[in-house]
Automatic annotation (TrEMBL):
<dbReference type="InterPro" id="IPR018980">
    <property type="entry name" value="FERM_PH-like_C"/>
</dbReference>
<dbReference type="InterPro" id="IPR019749">
    <property type="entry name" value="Band_41_domain"/>
</dbReference>
<dbReference type="InterPro" id="IPR019747">
    <property type="entry name" value="FERM_CS"/>
</dbReference>
<dbReference type="InterPro" id="IPR000299">
    <property type="entry name" value="FERM_domain"/>
</dbReference>
<dbReference type="GO" id="GO:0005856">
    <property type="term" value="C:cytoskeleton"/>
</dbReference>
<dbReference type="InterPro" id="IPR014352">
    <property type="entry name" value="FERM/acyl-CoA-bd_prot_sf"/>
</dbReference>
<keyword id="KW-0963">Cytoplasm</keyword>
<feature type="domain" description="FERM">
    <location>
        <begin position="1"/>
        <end position="264"/>
    </location>
</feature>
<dbReference type="GO" id="GO:0005737">
    <property type="term" value="C:cytoplasm"/>
</dbReference>
<dbReference type="InterPro" id="IPR014847">
    <property type="entry name" value="FA"/>
</dbReference>
<protein>
    <submittedName>
        <fullName>Erythrocyte membrane protein band 4.1 like 4A</fullName>
    </submittedName>
</protein>
<dbReference type="GO" id="GO:0031032">
    <property type="term" value="P:actomyosin structure organization"/>
</dbReference>
<dbReference type="InterPro" id="IPR011993">
    <property type="entry name" value="PH-like_dom_sf"/>
</dbReference>
<dbReference type="InterPro" id="IPR019748">
    <property type="entry name" value="FERM_central"/>
</dbReference>
<dbReference type="GO" id="GO:0008092">
    <property type="term" value="F:cytoskeletal protein binding"/>
</dbReference>
<dbReference type="Pfam" id="PF00373">
    <property type="entry name" value="FERM_M"/>
</dbReference>
<dbReference type="Pfam" id="PF08736">
    <property type="entry name" value="FA"/>
</dbReference>
Length: 356
């Protein structure tokens, strides 16, 4: 954490990794997730000032690959596997029960290997957590599927997990609550392909990054300008809860657009319009590598040779006993989304596995 300190200073910092171990990148303030900039000190992160000390930071995926199975390095696919597993467990990624059973079986195969009736006695699946509000019926389904996965090594089981998970409707969606006309509630979802708009539990709009010509905010008003098929631009306006939230949405949108956009010489003439992403009085530019650079830069040799991947075991819990019967297993200590996003997920996907 030395890179975040301008001068030596004492502060308490706890980093929580994807494999649930404790030891960079985000912090929570009023339900908003902020990504830390390694080029800045902690004191320069204005959003962090009112949150500590102590500080709790989380290591996680910022930009979700549209197809994580195409990631070239096994270590990267493993980190995506850990992240998506956490997304489902913590309620960020709704998952139907049958899909949860398939995914859970891949997790068990990756961790425990082939089913062995002498080692894997009754109730062995209940020692692990896969979804909020986990029930015994799900564990039984996971056990049945696990028995069919003989021969899959961890890397193969994790790749199969990602192949299923990437098809979930909310995979890789970064949700931001906003208000539309007459204070009606909307959610803007930032994805690898563009911005998705939700209203009344349904998707009402999808705007691809190449068609978005301007992103702007002023005070609490957020503007999304889109070029239609008729080559006419239309502006969509939304209201954020406050100025801080609105600016955060704007910054996230700029970063997602920059990361996922195509190189200028391969995109359409729309690329010349992307300079309009600024807002009066504010400057923000994503300075990291873009998605296409990670796959086409000749200086980046992937996969890197002689990589050693150390997989961590998931946290385990007491095995379900006969006394618990059909009772559910609690997720004590697992943080869920802030109440607005949580409410959206619960009401929008009634047939999915839901948080408590």
């Amino acid at each position: 954490m030395g890179c975040f300190c301008a001068v030596p200073e004492e502060f308490y910092c706890e980093v929580l990794f994807l494999d649930e171990s404790k030891l960079t990148l985000t912090t929570q303030q009023q339900g908003i997730k902020y990504w830390l900039d390694p080029a800045k000190t902690l004191a320069e992160h204005k959003e962090l000032i009112n949150t500590g000390p102590p500080y709790t930071l989380y290591f996680g995926i910022k930009f979700y690959a549209e197809d994580p199975c195409k990631l070239k390095e096994e270590i990267t696919r493993y980190q995506f596997f850990l992240q998506v597993k956490q997304d489902i467990l913590q309620g960020r990624l709704p998952c139907p029960v049958n899909t949860a059973a398939q995914l859970g079986a891949y997790v068990i195969q990756s961790e425990l290997g082939d089913y062995d009736p002498y080692k894997h006695t009754a109730g062995y699946v209940s020692e692990y957590r896969f979804v909020p509000d986990q029930k015994e019926e799900l564990e039984d389904a996971i056990e049945r599927i696990h028995k069919t996965l003989m021969g899959q090594v961890p890397a193969e089981a994790e790749a199969n997990y990602l192949e299923v998970a990437k098809s979930l409707e909310m995979y890789g969606v970064d949700l931001h609550p906003v208000y539309g006309e007459n204070k009606s509630e909307y959610f803007l979802g930032l994805t690898p392909i563009g911005v998705v708009v939700y209203k009344n539990r349904k998707q009402v709009g999808k705007y691809f990054w190449p068609r978005i010509t301007k992103v702007h905010f002023k005070e609490t008003q957020f503007e999304l300008r889109v070029l239609g098929k008729d080559c006419n631009e239309t502006s969509f306006f939304f209201e954020a809860r406050d100025k801080i939230t609105c600016k955060h949405l704007w910054k996230c949108c700029v970063e997602h657009h920059t990361f996922f956009r195509m190189p200028e010489n391969e995109s359409s003439s729309l690329s010349r319009k992307f300079s309009k992403f600024g807002s009066i009085g504010y400057k923000h530019r994503y300075s990291g590598r873009m998605s296409f650079q990670m796959t086409r830069d000749p200086s980046i040799q992937l996969p890197r040779p002689d990589q050693c991947i150390e997989r961590s075991r998931s946290k385990t819990y007491p095995k379900r006993t006969q006394q618990t019967g059909k009772n559910t297993l609690s997720l004590v200590g697992i943080p869920l989304l802030h109440h607005l996003t949580k409410a959206f997920l619960l009401h929008s996907f009634p047939n999915s596995v839901k948080p408590e």
